[in-house]
Design a protein that fits this description.
Blueprint (H helix, E strand, L loop, with lengths): L1 E5 L5 E7 L4 E2 L34 E3 L26 E8 L2 E9 L5 E10 L4 E10 L5 E3 L2 E3 L1 E2 L10 E3 L4 E3 L9 E7 L2 E4 L5 E4 L11 E7 L5 E5 L4 E6 L7 E8 L12 E8 L6 H7 L3 E3 L4 E12 L1
């Protein structure tokens, strides 16, 4: 396994390569990974400029995640999140049998310290992540925590590709986007698309690029924190996560149907994104109690694991 991390751009993991099969598991967009400094946005976007620099890969979204309406309780949070900030790093171990690197960032305009230690041990193709959030302020702070982990290599997502999940509930929200799964019509792992005249879509598989679709669903009610994506060539991407911190998975499926800014119909990807919140907007998450909370000096730790294994 080969991993590459852009420490000066959100500590993005922009390469997750299975070397024996030469399979890249992360999305690559048309944007080139580059330093943020030379680009000066000339028009303010409500959601911030995260997508202006989105090269694909694996991002940490903190302390908010999702859409950001003008009524948000903390509009300044949209200016710079952990996903666009430069992180410091320290190599803690560098031996053939063990590699460990700690990344850290203090969020701008909020007093959070966020740390992520990445570990590889032996020859096992398993990435361990040990993460810590600390509230360095002197008041209670609420936040959201998530990560974007889209798979896009067509050789891995070749049809039929199987998504393996614990028993869970599928929720579809009325997001106002006609591309998304219809609200309130989901059962098991099957949801419906309004724009396809109510035709059923099986979430346990990945269609080819022909549908030109862009879909989003939300999964909850897991009794264990794991999921797996298998292909027909015997490769399996497996993720394990703490469901007391990330009780939701956002299921994002794009088959070259995300038109307009920022994708323009160029992306083909499947993502199951661990989230602390069911709702993609901070005000709604606050109203429904779907946020995490830390008092002064308190911390929260999480351990996750991502692996590429034979199936």
């Amino acid at each position: 396994m080969r991993l590459s991390v852009a420490a000066d751009k959100g500590a993005d993991i922009f390469e997750f390569l299975h070397k024996p099969s030469d399979t890249e598991f992360l999305l690559r967009t048309a944007l080139v990974l580059e330093a943020l400094g030379p680009v000066l946005p000339t028009i303010h976007l409500r959601e911030g400029n995260f997508s202006d620099f989105y090269e694909g890969g694996w991002q940490e979204l903190f302390p908010v995640a999702g859409d950001f309406p003008a009524t948000t309780r903390a509009p300044s949070w949209t200016t710079r999140r952990s996903g666009t900030a430069a992180w410091s790093y320290r190599i803690e171990d560098d031996r053939p049998e063990r590699v460990a690197v700690k990344f850290a960032v203090v969020t701008t305009r909020t007093p959070f310290l966020l740390e992520r230690t990445m570990l590889l041990e032996g020859s096992a193709p398993i990435l361990q992540l040990r993460e810590r959030v600390v509230n360095e302020g002197d008041e209670v702070l609420e936040f959201m925590w998530a990560r974007i982990i889209p798979r896009s290599d067509v050789r891995f997502l070749d049809e039929p590709c199987e998504v393996v999940l614990p028993r869970c509930e599928v929720v579809t929200l009325a997001a106002g986007n006609p591309d998304y799964f219809t609200s309130g019509r989901a059962s098991g792992q099957v949801a419906t698309r309004e724009r396809q005249a109510g035709t059923a879509v099986d979430l346990s598989g990945m269609p080819g690029p022909e549908p030109k679709a862009h879909d989003l669903a939300f999964l909850r009610g897991f009794d264990e924190g794991r999921y797996e994506i298998r292909n027909q060539r015997g490769l399996s991407f497996q993720m394990r996560l703490p469901i007391h911190i990330f009780p939701y998975l956002w299921y994002w499926q794009v088959t070259r149907g995300a038109f307009g800014y920022p994708w323009y119909g160029t992306t083909y990807n499947l993502a199951l994104e661990p989230h602390s919140s069911l709702f993609p907007m901070l005000p709604r998450a606050l109203e429904q109690g779907h946020v995490l909370k830390l008092g002064p000096g308190q911390e929260l730790t999480a351990e996750l694991e991502a692996a590429v294994l034979p199936c």
